[in-house]
Design goal:
With 133 residues, the chain is mainly α. Helices cover 89% and strands 0% of the residues.
Length: 133
């Protein structure tokens, strides 16, 4: 048999989830600024490079949304776990906490994928600059 889950178990994830959500929000705000800049550039001179950047940023924005949703769901389930422990539903609480952990793993996995796409986009910019030299 395993150790019983206590109120402090899901509470341990609160600070980690909060920091991750802050990082995701900062990433989202950076994308919003980039989209505004791309919008102005595209209005002035629509070209294929900007079209590919727009497609890339759209995909990254979609992934960031899913990262945020998974992270918030994880936090929500941690709070739900604490409530279930509080009302004495420990067996259900263990399962809900397990789902919270899975949601956090999903959020982090999506984040890794989004980082890979971001690096590819930056490498394209670097290659484009190198071609101009």
């Amino acid at each position: 048999m395993h150790e019983p889950i206590t109120l402090t178990t899901p509470a341990l994830l609160f600070s980690a989830i909060s920091l991750i959500l802050l990082a995701y929000t900062n990433r989202f705000l950076a994308y919003a600024a980039l989209i505004r800049t791309l919008h102005e550039k595209f209005k002035a001179d629509p070209n294929e490079l900007l079209k590919s950047q727009i497609a890339n940023i759209r995909k990254r924005l979609y992934l960031t949304k899913n990262m945020q949703i998974s992270g918030v769901a994880s936090l929500f389930l941690c709070v739900g776990t604490m409530f279930l422990i509080f009302v004495g539903q420990n067996i259900i609480a263990v399962w809900v906490f397990g789902v919270a952990l899975i949601m956090m793993i999903a959020s982090l996995g999506i984040s890794i994928y989004e980082i890979q796409i971001s690096v590819k986009a930056l490498n394209l910019h670097l290659s484009n600059m190198e071609d101009d030299i």
